[in-house]
Amino acid sequence: MLEVARLSNGYGGAEVIADISLTIAQGESVALLGRNGAGKTTLLHSLFNIGPPCTGDIRFNGRPIARLPTHRIARHGLALVPQGRGGFPDLRVRESLGLATLAPRGPDARACTLAGIYRQFPRLHERRNTLCANLSGGERQLLALARALLTQSELIVLDECSEGLAPLAIDTLLQPELLKLRERGYTVLLAEQNIGLALAVATRVIVLSDRRIVFDGDTEAFRQDPGMQREHLGL
Ligand SMILES: Nc1ncnc2c1ncn2[C@@H]1O[C@H](COP(=O)(O)OP(=O)(O)OP(=O)(O)O)[C@@H](O)[C@H]1O
Ligand SMILES: [Mg+2]
Fold first, then answer.
1. Which element (helix H / strand E) includes 227?
2. What is the pLDDT of residues 78-101, one digit of tens each?
3. In what order do the strands lie in the sheet with 2-11?
4. CB of 39 closer than 6 A to ligand 1?
5. What is the Å distance from ligand 1's center to 98 Cα?
6. Which candidate, 93, 86, 112, 116, places its Cα nearest to that of 101?
7. In a domain, 106, yes or no
8. Domain extent at residue 46
9. Checking CA distances to 235, which of 68, 83, 111, 127 falls within 20 to 30 Å?
10. Which residue has the higher pLDDT, 19 or 163?
11. 169 in any annotated domain
12. Neighbours of ion ligand 2 (CB under 5 A)
């Protein structure tokens, strides 16, 4: 589904990621791990052409998408749940979700309706008249995830969606929803600092360190490599 070849990017002449190549097949759930500042967000943003333009080749379902305008990349069927607490604080939950349903859909779009989202996320249904600014952190992450699903994308990219959430919110709100994505056949790429969450929802792990991929294998192989975990993740 996603093919990345010799991807490099950085800021002001300093390379942050160099010569990255990876492929993600349909239905895979892949965790992207790396210390703070390892370049996870830079890699994800390069896929969507947010920030400095990358070098290298990116293909989605065989079609070249590298350096296209971000809205055209999204139209190919990729959705980003960005890092941090962005969004539209002045909108009500139902308005924010309604906007996401307006995104143009590609020919291979997955069926996902507002009614379906309210069934899947009863918490968002309860809060549908609440201003987004007044949601809890966990609810806001659910909203961001729901908005990505409503764009009917095939690949859901999540950038540290657990950041700033209490362990209880991660365990009871976020992790079950991420597991559901996997069960329903979505293809998922998630950057995470929370190794426990990453290993619980991913089938494969990619580790970024010193600008490059230093590990790419299934979660079991990751678990059995404590030396690599120590060296590149400080675990
Ligand atoms: N807009 C920017 N301008 C200049 N430098 C930047 C910019 N964004 C990121 N960097 C630098 O690039 C490096 C990689 O940052 P990036 O945000 O990709 O890391 P990350 O792996 O996502 O980290 P975190 O886990 O903290 O989110 C860091 O050294 C960071 O300071
Ligand atoms: Mg980041």
1. helix 226-233
2. 999 988 766 788 999 999 999 988
3. 14-24, 2-11, 55-60, 63-64
4. yes
5. 32
6. 112
7. no
8. 2-85+153-233
9. 83
10. 19
11. yes
12. 40-41, 83
Give the residue-averaged pLDDT of 14-26.
97
* pLDDT tens profile 114-173: 999 999 899 999 999 999 999 988 889 899 999 999 988 899 999 999 988 899 989 988
In a mutational test of the pocket of ligand 1, which residue from 8, 9, 16 has the highest number of ligand atoms less than 8 Å from its CB?
16
Tell whether ligand 1 has an atom less than 6 A from the beta carbon of residue 38.
yes
Which amino acid residue places its CA nearest to atom 5 of ligand 1? 11
In-domain check, residue 29: yes
Task: Give residue 105's pLDDT.
Answer: 67
Percent of the chain with pLDDT over 70: 96
How many Cα atoms are found within 13 Å in the side-chain-facing hemisphere of 39? 26
Does residue 136 lie in a domain region? no
Q: Which two tokens stand for residue 84?
A: 């941090």
Confirm or reject: Cβ of 193 under 6 Å from ligand 1: yes
The number of beta carbons lying within 10 Å of the beta carbon of residue 88 is 14
> Atom 17 in ligand 1: which residue has the minimum CA distance?
41
CATH of the domain at 206: 3.40.50.300
pTM of the complete model beyond 0.85:
yes
The total domain count for the chain is 1
